[in-house]
Write a structure and sequence with these properties.
Largest sheet of chain A: none
Strand content of chain A: under 5%
Helix content of chain B: 40-55%
Distance between the termini of chain B: 66 Å
Strand order of the largest sheet of chain B: 2-1-5-4-3-6-7
Shape of chain B: elongated
Number of helices of chain B: 5
Number of strands of chain B: 7
Largest interface: A-B, 22 and 27 residues
Oligomer: heterodimer
Largest sheet of chain B: 7 strands, mixed
Structural class of chain B: alpha/beta
Order of helices and strands of chain B: HEEEHEHEHEEH
Radius of gyration of chain A: 33 Å
Number of helices of chain A: 8
Radius of gyration of chain B: 20 Å
Helix content of chain A: 55-70%
Structural class of chain A: mainly alpha
Number of strands of chain A: 0
C-alpha cells in the first residue's frame, strides 16, 4: 500500500522529468556535435601553419586591392614553386568562376581557410577534420583550401571541388539529400518515437498504480485489522516518523 | 510479449543482415570514385630526376595507367614489379605513369635504383595531383582511356591478373 502511494504521488512525475531532461540534453548535445565539434571557440586564434614565410604585410583600407592582388600572386607563386600551380581552369570547369572576392587580409584568409578545413574530413585519419590533423595529407589539403580561397573561390565552391574528387565522404557533415536525409532525420524520429514510448509507458504505469475507485484510500492513521500486524506497524511508524505510540500527530501539529 | 520481442529484434537485425548480404560480395578495393566516368584531372609534373615534364593533356590519344605510390608504402614495393612488367608488356599501347606521394627525391631514387625504372616517376609537391584525384592512401591506380576519361580506379596493390583485367578495357577502347 505504501509503495503504491509513493509511486503514484511522488516518483513517477519526477522520474519522467529526469528521463525527459536527460533525453533532451542528449538530443541537444548530439545535434550540436557535427556543426560545432571542430570549431574553435570565438576569439580563439586559428591553429595551424599560419601564413607562409615572406607573405607581404598588408594594410587595410585603400591598399586592399593591391593587397588582394599580392595575395593571389603569392598563392600562385607558392604553388608554382611547389612544382604545380593550381589549375584554375580545371577548378573553374568543376565549380564555376570564383564567387567571392579574395580575402583582404592574411587574417581573413586564414580564418576562412580554417573554417573550411574544419568541415573537410581528413581521408587518412579516422574521423578527424583537416583542420585538426597534423598528417601531411591534411596539411596539403589545408594548403589547397588556402590557395583556392586566395583565388576567390567561396566556401561552397571549395567544398564542391573536394567533393568532386573524394566524394561526399570528404564532408564532415553529410548533405541533406538522398540517403543523407536519414542522418539528419533519424535522430529526431528516434527521439520523438522514444519520447512517445516513454510517455505511453509512464501513463500505463500511472494508470496501473492509481488507486481503484472501489479500493479504500489509505489514510495515514489507518491500521491493519490484524492486531499483530497493527502492533508492528505502530512500532515501525514510531521508529520511522518519531510518532509516539505510532499514532500520527493531529493535523496542524506538524 | 515474446512475439513482440521477436518482431522488435527482427526489425533491428534484418536491416543489418540485408546490409551485410549486399556488401559481402563486393571487392573492398574496387573503390567507387566520383571521378570514374569523368575527365581525368589534368596535371603537369616533373620527373624525379627533374629533366622531363609530363603533361597528361599531351598524352591524349593514348590510354594511361596513373599509379600513386610512395617509397614508405610496403604494398607499393610488390606492386612496383607488377607495374614495371606491365609497362614493358603494354607500354607501346598504354602510357604508365607513377606519381610519388608525399616523398623525398633521394628516397625515390634509392627505391628506383633497387626495384627498377620502367616508367616515369613524377613528383607531386604539395600533393595537388593527389587531391585532384581524391587519393586517400597509396597505392591507388587510375585507368584513363585515350579520350582522357577515367575508366576505373583501384585502391590497393595490383597483381598481374588485376592489372591485365583493368588494362584490357583500355586497349579495346583505343
Amino acid at each position: 500500500m505504501e509503495r503504491r502511494s509513493w509511486l503514484s504521488t511522488l516518483a513517477l512525475p519526477c522520474w519522467a522529468r529526469i528521463l525527459l531532461a536527460l533525453a533532451m540534453a542528449g538530443f541537444v548535445g548530439l545535434s550540436a556535435l557535427p556543426a560545432g565539434a571542430n570549431e574553435l571557440p570565438p576569439g580563439h586564434p586559428p591553429i595551424g601553419d599560419g601564413m607562409p614565410a615572406g607573405h607581404p604585410p598588408i594594410d587595410g583600407g585603400g591598399a586592399a586591392d593591391d593587397a588582394t592582388a599580392a595575395l593571389i600572386d603569392q598563392a600562385v607563386a607558392r604553388a608554382e614553386q611547389a612544382g604545380q600551380p593550381i589549375d584554375r581552369a580545371f577548378v573553374v570547369s568543376l565549380v564555376g568562376e570564383p564567387a567571392d572576392a579574395p580575402p583582404a587580409t592574411p587574417e581573413a584568409l586564414e580564418e576562412k581557410t580554417h573554417a573550411i578545413a574544419a568541415v573537410l574530413r581528413c581521408p587518412v585519419c579516422q574521423g578527424s577534420a583537416v583542420a585538426d590533423s597534423p598528417s601531411s595529407t591534411a596539411i596539403n589539403m589545408k594548403n589547397e583550401v588556402r590557395d583556392l580561397v586566395a583565388l576567390g573561390f567561396s566556401r561552397d565552391q571549395v567544398l564542391r571541388y573536394f567533393e568532386a574528387s573524394y566524394g561526399q565522404f570528404v564532408l564532415m557533415e553529410p548533405k541533406a539529400e538522398g540517403l543523407g536525409w536519414l542522418v539528419w532525420l533519424l535522430p529526431g524520429v528516434l527521439f520523438v518515437g522514444g519520447l512517445a514510448w516513454v510517455m505511453t509507458k509512464v501513463r500505463q504505469m500511472g494508470a496501473a498504480s492509481a488507486p481503484q475507485a472501489d479500493e479504500p484510500v489509505p489514510t495515514r492513521g489507518q491500521l491493519p485489522e490484524d492486531p499483530d500486524l497493527a502492533h508492528w506497524v505502530r512500532q515501525v511508524r514510531e521508529l520511522a516518523y518519531g510518532w509516539p505510540g505510532g499514532e500520527p500527530p493531529a493535523k496542524g501539529e506538524g | 510479449m515474446n512475439k513482440k520481442v521477436l518482431i522488435g529484434g527482427l526489425l533491428l537485425v534484418l536491416p543489418l543482415i540485408a546490409l551485410f548480404a549486399v556488401s559481402f560480395g563486393n571487392d573492398p578495393h574496387a573503390v567507387r570514385s566520383p571521378l570514374v566516368g569523368k575527365e581525368a584531372p589534368p596535371f603537369r609534373l616533373v620527373t624525379v630526376d627533374g629533366d622531363q615534364t609530363v603533361d597528361l593533356a599531351a598524352l591524349r590519344g593514348k590510354p594511361a595507367v596513373v599509379n600513386f605510390w610512395a617509397t614508405w608504402c610496403q604494398p607499393c614495393k610488390a606492386e612496383h614489379g607488377v607495374l614495371t612488367r606491365g609497362a614493358s608488356r603494354f607500354g607501346d599501347q598504354v602510357q604508365f605513369l607513377g606519381i610519388v606521394y608525399d616523398d623525398e627525391p633521394a628516397a625515390i631514387n634509392a627505391f628506383l635504383d633497387r626495384y627498377g625504372r620502367g616508367y616515369p616517376a613524377l613528383i607531386d609537391e604539395g600533393g595537388k595531383a593527389a587531391i585532384a584525384y581524391g587519393v586517400a592512401g597509396v597505392p591507388e591506380t587510375f585507368f584513363i582511356d585515350a579520350e582522357g576519361k577515367i575508366v576505373s580506379k583501384y585502391a590497393g596493390p595490383l597483381t598481374p591478373d588485376l592489372l591485365t583485367r583493368y588494362v584490357r578495357p583500355l586497349l579495346e577502347g583505343s
